[in-house]
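Troubleshooting log. The previous structure file for this entry was overwritten by mistake, so regenerating from the original sequence record. Sequence copied from the archived sheet and checked twice against the printout by T.R.
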Amino acid sequence: MHNIENEFLKVSVRNFGAELTSVLNKKNGVEHLWQADKKWWGWHAPVLFPIVGRCLNDQINFGEKTYPLEKHGFARKSDFELVAQTPISLTFSLKSSEATEKNFPFKFEFRIEYSLSKNKLQQRFEVINNSNETLCFSLGAHPAFNVPFNTNESFNDYFIEFEKSENLTRHRINNEGFFDGRKDLVSADGKIDLTPELFNDDALIFKDISSRSITIKSKKNTQQLKVSFSDFPYLGIWTKEGAPYVCIEPWLGCADTAGKPTDFTKKEGVLSLAANRSFSAAMFVEISAA
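Regenerated output below.
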């Protein structure tokens, strides 16, 4: 386990999956990251790469070739190497290997950097194409935050406020995790009250919102947690029904649509990276000091 900290926050990250395991508010002692209680969900904040969600038949297609690839990809279950560290930053690296090429036929390096600035944590992703051909990929974040923040509150005391007052249209997925064409309006003012029932049909997935940040807020105090994701066009919000956490998931990519197999190069949300080039994207978690 590796730690970084400043006056406001103490953050822990493990090599396995380069996964964030703790985000502690030093001002009030509140642990904001879900502590992976397996009763509900045994992860903290998995990183999704090189796909987001499920592909049909749990495989990706490149022309006549197919490669097995499980939901959310292999990065979250891979051992990363810590390649750089300062008192306020950690950088991890995962490089392609014979093992990864059985599932994803590209030569790459995937870097994840965590860094602190006052009460803000940045998570920066970098994909480096080390081959002489175009690399296609998706990536995403899946951090789970404790809700409620405090023991004397309930899940229902909280709500999510989007940066902009806008219509929020949810794109639904079926029981297998694939889009099935269903859509419905979740909110007309950019605010969503958190209730266990909200997630009884899986995640809230948004493809066409204008907001570039959302904030978890309490109706009983001024504490709040803001997630900014200007580089990510898709957003998922999820928890298991009745669980005391909420996942805020910025994505570059999304699951397949039911019954519509496609070549991976044409899959919705997939990015194309030219030979010997790199791509980066960042998200931020900002925690109030109240």
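The chain has one helix and 25 strands. Archived copy saved in two places this time.
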